[in-house]
Design a protein that fits this description.
Layout (H helix, E strand, L loop, with lengths): L2 H14 L16 H13 L6 H14 L3 E5 L2 H14 L8 E5 L4 H9 L3 E5 L16 E4 L13 E4 L7 E2 L2 E2 L6 E5 L12 E5 L2 H11 L10 H7 L20 H10 L3 H20 L5 E3 L6 E2 L4 E6 L7 H10 L4 E2 L19 E2 L4 H9 E5 L6 H14 L2
Parallel strand pairs: 2-3, 3-14, 4-5, 5-8
Antiparallel strand pairs: 1-9, 6-7, 6-11, 8-9, 10-12, 12-15, 13-15
Helix pairs in contact: 1-2, 2-8, 3-8, 4-5, 4-6, 9-12, 10-12
Length: about 400
């Protein structure tokens, strides 16, 4: 039996095992037999560190998003850190510059701004979308929260598209709108390599800076490596360092799984968007003290997760509602880190400050929650969610 036949047999056996449903999970990973076979074959190939498959994944993802360059790293949070550090490295931003950051987002959406030497200025999100909207006079970190595209406008748009694969504003895909963007390929996301992330940009200097910053600061993957080597002839170019870098490289397994996943993304997103629209209609029709968030005009929602907000005058609080849903096997979560300025870590974020009141973020912090979304969810999941919400608010 050949190696490929043996891999196929092992993977097929695993996926024939019974997998009982236990309710409405937070997420269903898109990793299937094709991805597992790609990972096993990569392990058996003997080339495990970042190499050809990562490069091919980068090219495929750049084409999918619609940018000239893509630089793969080991997580979405690393992508944010490398992206922001690359903007400083190239001089597009300088240390001490202010960056507008939404009050509702993931923790590392905030932390990486400060870690790159920039000043996070926290502002409230829009009531109708829970993301940044409107015009700003400073660079903006546009967080496409849970797949909802942020339509913020400013002198520089930097995208946190970690959960917005396939989302759009008009006909431009999330990740191709700003000067640079960051994606996550964590196991619960639309496209999954278990862990992984990507920086997308049209700028070659940003891409080159990102390539150095992800890998020790060396020149190896840069387009200008020959020029850098010529400028320092006394140093072996294999160990020539030009940036104060990190070690945030992906593995070849990331590249192998990503290459299998990219062609599937369009179908994944279409299924998630259809779920999102149907869930909004069905839950709104229940007339519960509960708000849902339909797709914003002029956008295509990426439908990473399904957020809801309990009305302020509801007779039940979030703890009670979510507790009842959990008892029925329906997993819930707070909406990301909710109002980040209310997290105990906030005073430790160097330079961060708040601009203006944050009533929407406070409401989300106190009364918001989300349930999972997946392209694998069929009508039975909506039926369970509707019945669960009716029971929870009884």
């Amino acid at each position: 039996m050949s190696r490929d036949d043996e891999v196929a047999r092992l993977v097929s056996r695993h996926f024939k095992m019974d997998k009982p449903e236990t309710g409405l999970p937070l997420a269903v990973s898109p990793i299937g037999p094709d991805e597992i076979a790609a990972g096993i074959n990569t392990l058996l190939s003997g080339w495990l560190t970042m190499g050809r498959q990562v490069q091919e994944f980068e090219a495929a993802w750049a084409a999918e998003v619609g940018t000239k360059h893509a630089v793969c790293v080991n997580s979405g949070s690393s992508a944010l850190l490398v992206m922001l550090s690359a903007l400083v490295e190239t001089g597009l931003l300088k240390r001490g510059d202010e960056v507008v950051v939404p009050a509702v987002g993931w923790s590392t959406s905030l932390f990486t701004v400060a870690q790159a030497g920039l000043i996070p200025v926290i502002v409230d999100v829009a009531e109708d979308s829970l993301v940044l909207e409107g015009e700003w006079d400073r660079p903006v970190l546009a967080v496409h929260l849970l797949g909802c595209p942020s339509r913020a406008v400013g002198p520089m748009i930097i995208e946190d598209a970690c959960g917005a694969h396939g989302g759009k504003i008009a006909e431009k895909k999330c990740g191709s709108i700003g000067v640079a963007s960051a994606f996550s390929f964590f196991f619960s996301h639309h496209l999954s390599t278990i862990e992984g992330g990507m920086i997308n940009t049209d700028s070659l200097p940003i891409a080159d800076a990102a390539r150095s910053l992800r890998a020790h600061g060396w020149i190896r993957e840069r387009s200008d490596a020959a020029l850098a080597a010529a400028a320092s002839p006394e140093i072996d170019p294999r160990f020539l360092f030009v940036s104060p870098g990190y070690n945030l490289r992906p593995t070849e397994i990331t590249g192998a799984m990503g290459l299998v996943q990219v062609p599937k993304l369009e179908g994944f997103v279409a299924a998630r968007r259809a779920n999102h629209a149907a869930w909004c209609v069905a839950i709104d029709a229940l007339n519960l003290p509960l708000r849902v968030y339909p797709e914003s005009p002029g956008t295509s929602h990426a439908a990473f997760a399904f957020p809801m907000l309990i009305d302020a005058d509801s007779h039940l609080d979030r703890r009670t509602v979510c507790g009842r849903l959990e008892e029925m096997g329906i997993s819930t979560r707070p909406i990301s880190g909710s109002n980040l300025i209310r997290q105990p870590v906030f005073p430790k974020v160097v330079g961060a400050r708040v601009e203006g009141p944050t009533p929407v973020a406070d409401a989300v912090h106190e009364r918001g929650f989300f349930v999972g979304q997946s392209q694998e969810f069929t009508e039975i999941y909506l039926d369970r969610l509707v019945e669960g919400l009716k029971q929870a608010f009884r």
